[in-house]
Amino acid sequence: MEDPPSSKRPESKSALALSVSRRGRRFGTVIALIVLAAIIALAWYLTHRPSPISANGGPPGTSASRGGRGGAARGAPPSTVGVATARHANIPVYIDALGTVTPIAVATVAPQVSGVITSLPYTEGQMVQKGQVLATIDPRPFQMTLDQATAARVRDEAQLNAARVQLERYQVLLKQDSIARQTVDTQDALVKQLIGTVGVDRANENSARLNLQWSRVVAPIGGRVGLRPIDVGNYIAAGNTAGVATITQISPIDVQFSIPQERVPDIKTQVAAQAKLPVSAWDASRTRKLDDGEFLTLDNQIDVQTGTVKAKARFGNASGVLFPNQFVNASLLLRTIDAAVVVPVIALRHGPSGDFVYVVNDDHTVSLRDVTAGIASVDDVEITKGLNVGEKVVTEGGDRLKDGARIQTSEDVAKEAANGSNGRHARASGAKPGNDGAQASGAAQASGAGQNAPAGMANAPGAGNTPPTGTEAGRSGGRRRGARADANSSTQQ
């Protein structure tokens, strides 16, 4: 007995849906694989397609576009680099340090006596000389003291003279045995006492005279006066800490700086050889030289915290550009290396195995060469081993290079650009550079003149004179225009 149709229909529909679902998944998988294969093929094409411009500017596929040695990508364009030539040069060896301008002497001018200031004959910031009067203290009390000391000295000297005369008389009488010896001894003691008194009087007189001189305060050193700490009319005590002025010696002047302890033996060797070591003082930005001086001395010990030694250089400072306590950049010329092999600093590169440079070969490739670097200046570096004079090295663009890579210099690029510009100009004028026949052909086509036109057609409209040179197109154009001119002439007749 067969099942009713209604019972089989759901099973057939379910099987049909399952089959359609399986076919859809298979179709989607195939589509995904096709898309993935297309992406892989596109990526391979983009990474392996040949360069449209060869190494020497020629079409792809030429021998110059196949890449250089050393694993360069096949068909990759050469890298544009900057090139410099190794040369001989004298390299100065400098020791650079931050220094402080230090005056040789600073004096605070304080009075030696007390009194009222009656004058201050100087201007703030003025340059003064040694011995110049800076202040005057009222001298009248000191003058009176001097007069008293002088009077006391004169009085005591008179007494001394009288005592000496009396002693001489006593000594004569003693020889005649007319006076006791005790009287003579007493008079001799009085004379010695008066001699001491006169000595004290003279000392007091000199002290009073010195105080009178000290009432005029003078400059102990030459230099620049600072701001005035006191005004006229004020009482000032002897030894006042502020004084009446502060003088700073600025010419000559010193610069104190620190040098590494490793440089101490070199400096001591130069000093022992009595060599003069020049020192230059530069401003904070190292763009302007302030003054030139000479190395003076080293300190007697090394700073254990910094590992440096203090040094001092002396500058004339005739223009006064160096100011006390100013920060400057000191540059000491230790020695000069003569005829050293040098290259620009940017040509020297550093790798795991040490310093190296890229040397340019004749076939427009580079070779990595290990070198030994020496002293470096601001622009150049000394190559003590591994490079000869005249060899070319890469200065710019070396970060994208490796051993054997092909390169082109910036000069080559400029020449190619100039040649390309000339070619475009020639194509715009209807001819190629260096093809005189093509230029003549373009001219003949533009004018329509034939080279061998008949003599009777010389005056026909459109017929040109015979050009010096021409092409077949020019001759056919001239014949066609000559025929039209002959037809028009016969019609008019």
* Shape-level CATH architecture of the largest domain: Beta Barrel
The CATH class label of the largest domain is: Mainly Beta
- Whole-angstrom Rg: 54 Å
Kindly state the percentage of residues in helix. Answer: 25-40%
Our estimate of the beta-strand percent is 25-35%
Which fold does the CATH topology of the largest domain refer to?
OB fold (Dihydrolipoamide Acetyltransferase, E2P)
Mean pLDDT: 79
**Spans with pLDDT under 50 lasting ≥5 residues?**
1-8, 51-74, 431-493
Number of strands: 22
Structural category is alpha+beta
| Name of the CATH superfamily of the largest domain | RNA polymerase II/Efflux pump adaptor protein, barrel-sandwich hybrid domain
Number of domains: 4
Q: What is the number of helices?
A: 7
Largest sheet: 6 strands, antiparallel, barrel
What does this entry look like structurally?
- With 493 residues, the chain is an alpha+beta fold.
- It has 7 helices and 22 strands.
- It has 4 domains: 79-89 and 339-412, conserved putative lor/sdh protein from methanococcus maripaludis s2 fold (Beta Barrel), CATH 2.40.420; 106-246, OB fold (Dihydrolipoamide Acetyltransferase, E2P); 247-338, Elongation Factor Tu (Ef-tu), domain 3 (Beta Barrel), CATH 2.40.30.170; 436-492, no CATH class.
- A 6-stranded antiparallel barrel has the order 2-11-14-13-12-15. A 4-stranded antiparallel beta sheet has the order 3-10-8-5, with no helix packed on it. It has a 4-stranded antiparallel beta sheet with strand order 7-6-4-9.
- Helix 2 runs antiparallel to helix 3 (181-214).
